[in-house]
């Protein structure tokens, strides 16, 4: 369906599932492994003979992977590693007024990665979450992914490359609960990342008071800003490609060219809703994109570099004739990106999501003015012992 209007920015709503998700989480917290088995049989129709997949089995599954797929994974691995290596922050130190200060970056200890599965396998999501975690220095990585039979060979291969501690054949809200709170077989982690359906995201939301999460990921979003120089066929392909994620995907084309909009409209196919919007200028298109704060933003114009500087809110941006789907697989930046307008305050997954910045100070010869300032402000706030603990050191 073609619409000639702008979509409304969506907000993730769990109203229909949150009570059920809360019930699942509570059952796992109380019932442990037995609850996982019962819930997986009840919800997914899968009887779990084992809750942890043995290393020998994972190795066996990885060995049946098509060599061409293995080579492609190795190639993408190098590209993703190159990107995340580039942005890994250094430890920094300096000082002023007699105070030595700095920041050191430490990785989280235990990470849980959720990889959607069941009808389809998504090995790319495991790479996108696992590689920046490894570069950050996370020592213990655990993966939960639902299976209906054998573990996907590509996921097995990537799990081996990541040196994953345990792989759990568990899906849904029960998998999130297990990794958040632990069971007899599933290890509790410090943070959980990864995409998933509304039950998975609802579970991440509910456990986020006890463990870290990356974000609440909703349906895919793509906004394309294109001018008269854009190839209509490519634009249509980009929109339909992101539409493969589901009928709830937000797919928007904004252009100052009525001709381009009409040509793209004639090429679009499928059950998705496509929003094709005419604007008076590309600058107006950027303003709209900043309001929508989309997951993917494509600047398919001859002025892409110039317009890039005007973008304030987007998960990831492709420039010129670059397909957004390239970010989904092999460009380098992560495809785990903010949705639901979260790009207003958050970027895509990076090594920073697995690091903690710990600041430090040493003040042996601090200036008198800083000592007095600390004392004055502490007493102003009513914390006299704070003031005394500072003042007595430097009398």
Automatic annotation (TrEMBL):
Catalyzes the sequential NAD-dependent oxidations of L-histidinol to L-histidinaldehyde and then to L-histidine. The keyword Zinc applies. It comes from Metallosphaera tengchongensis. Pathway: Amino-acid biosynthesis; L-histidine biosynthesis; L-histidine from 5-phospho-alpha-D-ribose 1-diphosphate: step 9/9. Zn(2+) binds at residues 242, 245, 328, 386. InterPro entries: Ald_DH/histidinol_DH, Histidinol_DH_CS, Histidinol_DH_monofunct, Hstdl_DH. One of its GO terms (molecular function) is histidinol dehydrogenase activity. Binds 1 zinc ion per subunit. Pfam families: Histidinol_dh (PF00815). GO terms for biological process: L-histidine biosynthetic process. PROSITE patterns: HISOL_DEHYDROGENASE (PS00611). Its EC number is 1.1.1.23. One of its GO terms (cellular component) is cytoplasm. Signal peptide: none annotated. It catalyses: L-histidinol + 2 NAD(+) + H2O = L-histidine + 2 NADH + 3 H(+). Its cofactor is Zn(2+). NAD(+) binds at residues 114, 174, 197. The active site is at 295 (proton acceptor), 296 (proton acceptor). This is Histidinol dehydrogenase. Substrate binds at residues 220, 242, 245, 296, 328, 381, 386. Keywords: Amino-acid biosynthesis, Histidine biosynthesis, Metal-binding, NAD, Oxidoreductase, Zinc. Belongs to the histidinol dehydrogenase family.
